[in-house]
Amino acid sequence: MQKRHSKVIIVVVVFLTITSIMISINSLSSKKEVKARSDYYASFVSSVQTLDRTLSPTNGAKLDDVSQMFDVYTIIIFVNDRLTQLKENTKSFSELDELVNDFMIFRHRYESLVRQQIISDDVDPEVLLKVVDQIKLFLSVLPKEYENSKRFSNQLNAADQHIKPLLDISI
Question: Per residue in 106-120, pLDDT tens?
């Protein structure tokens, strides 16, 4: 009878050990995923801050200066790249689908503005001011750090609403 109980105890201990190892591995994997999301997200926020600084009128260049517009355009491409990298290198970050799409459309719209400025030197300053204002609003609502929460998703979606007006900028 004693042998039978000891076999059951050994089986239970082995089962619990294997289960705890699997839970530990899963927990470690989850922590790595959150860290990766956090790092990639921080890089994205930094690129948006760079865009905001470049659009800032305190840097001495006029908004309709071709070289200034081209600098802004290259940073918009960089922001798009950061978003794509964030999306591709983190699993199940579905909150980004719409934001990635919106920034891609904005990139193409701004590219058309740069082309128009190069060709005709005739870009409406109001359109450029709208870009500055919407990027500032976007950055002010954008969560500064990644969180794995519904609140973070809501803030990200609220920030995206400030990019949407840029999808219809007139050329």
Answer: 999 999 988 988 888
Please list, in sequence order, all residues whose beta carbon lies within 8 angstroms of the beta carbon of residue 27, skipping any fewer than 6 positions away: none
For residue 92, give the amino acid letter: S
3-class DSSP state of 144? coil
| H-state helical runs in 56-95 | 66-89
End-to-end CA distance of the chain: 87
Give the residue among 94, 90, 84 at the shortest CA–CA distance from 152.
94
Contact 48, 80 (CB under 8 A): no
pTM above 0.70, yes or no: yes
SS3 for 153? Answer: helix
Taking the C-alpha atoms of residue 76 and residue 151, their distance in angstroms, rounded to an integer, is 26
